[in-house]
Amino acid sequence: MKLMVLAVRRMFAALDWPLLALLAVMAMVGMATMHSAVGDADPRFADQFRNFLIAFVVMWIVAVLQPRVILKCAPYVYLLGIALLVAVALFGVTSKGATRWLNIGVARIQPSEIMKIAVPLMLAWYFERQSLSRIRARDFCVAAFLLLIPAALIIEQPDLGTAMLVLASGFCVMYFGGLSFKLLIPVVLVLGIGLGTLVTHEGQICEPDVNWVVLHEYQKNRICVLLNPGMDPLGKGFHTIQSMIAVGSGGVYGKGYMQGTQSHLDFIPERMTDFIFAVFAEEFGLYGGVALLALYALLVLRGLSITVRAPTQFGRLVGGAMSMMMFVYVFVNVGMVTGILPVVGIPLPFMSYGGTALITLGVACGLLMSIGSHQPQRDT
Q1: 127, 238, 315, 353: which could form a disulfide with 371 (CB 3.0–4.6 Å)?
Q2: Total domains in the fold of the chain
Q3: Residue 93, pLDDT above cutoff 60
Q4: Which string of b and e fits 173-187 if b means at least 16 CB within 10 Å?
């Protein structure tokens, strides 16, 4: 009996209560917005509630695991993810022109989602092994190689949005691991020149007969639509224009809960997934949007707070990557909804409909809780 009580106490001790409180608020806001977007009679509303429950259970399981156990499992999770990505390339399921899914009989999974967690775990594992000696430039080259393999496989599917998140989470591990900021200056210069060229020569570069070589045609169209949504207002630019109208029509105070005309008259495309922020902003206005972003900021800050108190380099690298991954999620999604970034199909954390993304976020939060609750002396 005492052992059972002790086990229950350890399970509850693994939870980070400030983080859990923030997640509970996010879940309530997410379900309320989903109710407005689809209604409680729609089966997707019940499915989303189930997805939250599954994500919470997964988060708790991961939180109970000790960091040293996670450290040992990291390379195996990475190799499993690579194997699944190769399997997708060989005999994956194609839908809407993209081959991103793998049919395993009982369900259809998207292996690229695994890499959002597997890549930072693998890189953190690698840097942890090098921590006894000085990390050299060669180590960053190896880390870059480990990062680029899954990113290339995901881009080939094609799934640029997920590849961006994988690259961002892996880059965070490398940066927190000691990558010099000076090495990023050439990259920033190249990006600046590229963006400047796009803006100044948009009319010529976005002509239909111009081939961008490194990008698919639909990816080229997304960038061109970002520069000029009015070039095809009823086609390629429809998503961006309608989401911007919804956000702007909410004004300062919003139209009121379930009173959004753009969403309820079906003008907002993908309103329960990629563009759910437009639904929220239309109904709750500027104040509501700022409050939601403040909630996300608290979530990220709590993750970083756990990170700085981590007793091991592995914990600090993983915690920092998980926290920044959630930041990138929010930044890219809100950016594409408000028309400052191209549409890349990245969901809004704890708001957008979908089980895979929620479970991924559940694992990320579970890793943060595991890092924060398990100290080296408790592992002995």
Answers
A1: 315
A2: 1
A3: yes
A4: bbbbbebeeeeeeee
Report yes or no: 333 and 347 within 8 Å, Cβ to Cβ.
yes
Q: Do residues 113 and 162 make contact, with C-beta atoms less than 8 angstroms apart?
A: yes
Distance CA 287, CA 253 (A): 6
Describe the strand order of the beta sheet including 98-103 as a list of residue ranges: 93-95, 98-103, 108-109
- pLDDT per residue as tens digits for the range 225-284: 777 776 667 667 777 888 888 888 888 999 988 888 888 777 887 788 889 999 999 999
- Which range marks the domain in which residue 326 is found? 16-379
Residue 141, classified by CB atoms within 10 Å of its CB into exposed (0-12), middle (13-18) or buried (19+), is: exposed
Write phi, then psi, for 266 (nearest 5 degrees).
65, 30
* Tokens read off for 110: 């998207």
Q: Give the per-residue SS3 of 138-176.
A: HHHHHHHHHHHHHHHHHHCCCCHHHHHHHHHHHHHHHHH
Triad 169, 290, 173: Cα angle to 5°: 10
User: What whole-number distance in Å separates Cα of residue 219 and Cα of residue 212?
Assistant: 10
- Select from 154, 113, 161, 169 the least CA-distant residue to 360: 113
Res. 114: pLDDT tops 70: yes
164 is a domain residue: yes
Q: Which residues contact 85 (CB under 8 A, 6 or more apart)?
A: 111, 112, 115, 150, 153, 154
**Domain-located, residue 202:** yes
Coil/strand/helix, residue 289: helix
Return left, alpha or beta for 341; rule: phi > 0 is left, psi -120 to 50 is alpha, else beta.
Answer: beta
Amino acid residing at 220: K
In a domain, 6, yes or no: no
